Amino acid sequence: MQNMKKVLSLLLVLTMVISMAACSSGNKNTTGGKNGVEVSTNNGGNDAETTPAEGDGETAAAEKSLPPMTADEITLTYVSWENEVLTKHLAEQFMKKYPNIKVEVVTLALDGYNDSLLNLVATGQMPDAFWILGECDFAINNQLLGDMTEYWENDPEADNVLTTINDGKFGYYGTDKKWATPVKFFPEVVFANKTVFDKLNVEMPSTDWTWEDMVESIKKMTVPEQGMYGFNQYRTMVTWYPVASDDNVWGEFGWDGTKFDMTNWADGLNMQAELINGKYHAPAFDSDEAEAAFGDRTMWAAYSGKVAYQFDAWWTFNNLFATQEYLDLGLVYVPYNVPRAKGTTSSHSMGTLDFGGISSATEHPREAYELLKFMNWNEEGWMAKLDAYSTLTNADGTKLSMDALPITLSTAVWDKVRTFFPGADDAYGRGPYFDAFLANCKEPIPYGGTIIPGFGTFIAEGYAGAENEVLNNGVNAHDLAPDLTEKANAANAAAMEVLKAQ
Q1: Could you give the angle at which helices 84-97 and 365-376 cross, rounded to 10 degrees?
Q2: Which residues contact 392 (CB under 8 A, 6 or more apart)?
Q3: Which of 51, 71, 75, 338 is positioned for an S-S bond with 349, CB 3.0–4.6 A?
Q4: Could you report the per-residue pLDDT of 70-124, keeping only the tens digit for each?
Q5: 3-state DSSP helix/strand/coil % of the chain, to nearest 5
Q6: With 50 as the cut, is the pLDDT of residue 160 above it?
Q7: Contact by Cβ (8 Å): 47, 367
Q8: Do 219 and 280 form a contact (C-beta atoms < 8 A)?
């Protein structure tokens, strides 16, 4: 822990090149569009002890409490890439609640965020609370994170969050200390184009479907003589399947919380290869096949009206599928939860969760924790967010967009969130699909790099080329799985040695 406070050591670290592994880990938001593709752009008081929690956390809430907030005049700095209008609104609400605390908001561009954060640290401007972009290794190796265990584990509101956060010990990084916690939540989604089902006179699948139902439907909706394809993917089967097929998997590629077993990864990748090579998948972007199918080799397949399912992330609805342009073209996409395989019992599903923490150098860890919580996950902060989404506009006059979903399980928050999406009176009949989706999306499993030390190193050094061997060269993924499992576990073990030394 002492080492965590040696922020000056970052001056040396800045001489190193920061690289973000270009892997299947997700911290990107889809833009897609008319000529877009599978591309991404991340959009992405009263003290806690006196705030009643709801749902499952209610009993625990009565038994926990946090130390009091300071009465001294202090200043806290908060750094993120969140919409600045929203962030400043939340900071103002926090300062109304705690008049003795001044909050200075720093908004950094998503592009180059981690470099910009390190530059702040190197110039003596270490924020008290901040977001982390991408790999947890970045924050660990640069000793940015302070230990928030005392606050998280005694906070009633920390019991009333998406259940997998505590069940999976996300942000502990395999230690007994809470270093970071989710600040944004984007569920993964199978978007189904209702218009395509109507054209083919096929009944929409049940929202209570299984993985096997989905694969069967993909094959049924592929009709070559009509130029129809079963699916297109930005998010992929190989990433989804290990979690979807095993209740004991708590991370990407078969991570069980302590180690990897890539057997389910192999099953998922083999299945993905079978569907792609069997022509159930839309043609690849900028290919001769895409030009032949869509008349435009750079058209996003989901924009063509010839794809039944788009595997994507939550932000794509507000960014694209909710727009009048798409609806006028008959592109009526509705959300389905990523299904689980038969025989499983949980509702776990891969999701994009961005993480944040309090600084290892902050002089006010209790207050920095409260600020991080208000700005990101508790009920009170989320109510302030919802007010902003209803009333505030960006500099260009556009309304703020609710890109992410709540981390709190507060019923009041989720009920109000529901009103932001198509309901029972929707002219396109999308209401029931949103009802089902929002009710069953609350057990996300984050992408590997955000919670598993060493995952980024494994992707960059041990995993490179593996998917290509299976998808394009006919290799059976099970022939690769044992070696990859060994390499993934070795990368994690090496990263844990770095963390244990702090």
Answers
A1: 130
A2: 85, 86, 89, 399, 400
A3: 338
A4: 999 999 999 999 999 999 999 999 999 999 999 999 999 999 999 999 999 999 9
A5: 45, 15, 40
A6: yes
A7: no
A8: yes
3-state secondary structure 16-40: CCCCCCCCCCCCCCECCCCCCCCCE
Q: How many residues does the chain have?
A: 502
Copy the structure tokens of residue 496: 């844990």
C-alpha–C-alpha distance, residues 408 and 184, integer Å: 11
> What CA–CA distance (Å, rounded) separates 355 from 167?
16
Tell me, what amino acid is at 276? I
Collapsing DSSP to helix, strand or coil, 295 comes out as coil
Q: Cα(447)–Cα(240) distance, rounded to whole angstroms?
A: 10
pLDDT band for 59, please (50, 70, 90 cuts).
low
Residue 189: both structure tokens together: 């989604």
CA distances from 431 to 100, 332, 333, 428, 469 (A): 45, 12, 12, 8, 42
What's the DSSP call for residue 228? B
Contacts (Cβ under 8 Å, ≥6 apart) of 446: 170, 182, 251, 351, 352, 353, 355
CA dist 324 → 117, 196, 232 (Å): 38, 18, 22
Amino acid at position 56, single letter: D
- For 439-467, the pLDDT digits (tens) are 999 999 999 999 999 999 999 999 999 99
pTM: 0.87
**Strand-pair partners of 399:** 393
Between the CA of residue 61 and those of 178, 183, 307, what are the distances in Å?
19, 21, 47
Who contacts 160 (Cβ-Cβ below 8 Å, separation ≥6)? 53, 54, 55, 56, 57, 58, 61, 379, 408, 409, 410
Q: Tell me the β-bridge partners of 129.
A: 78, 358
Cα distance between residue 121 and residue 191, in whole Å: 41
Q: Which residues, 6 or more positions from 273, have their beta carbon under 8 angstroms from its beta carbon?
A: 470, 471, 477
User: Which residues pair with residue 40 across a beta bridge?
Assistant: 30
Taking only the tens place, the pLDDT of each residue in 273-297 is 999 999 999 999 999 999 999 999 9
Compute CA distances 268 → 30, 241, 453, 467, whole Å: 23, 5, 23, 11
CA 98 to chain centre: 30
Lookup: tokens for 198: 């109507």
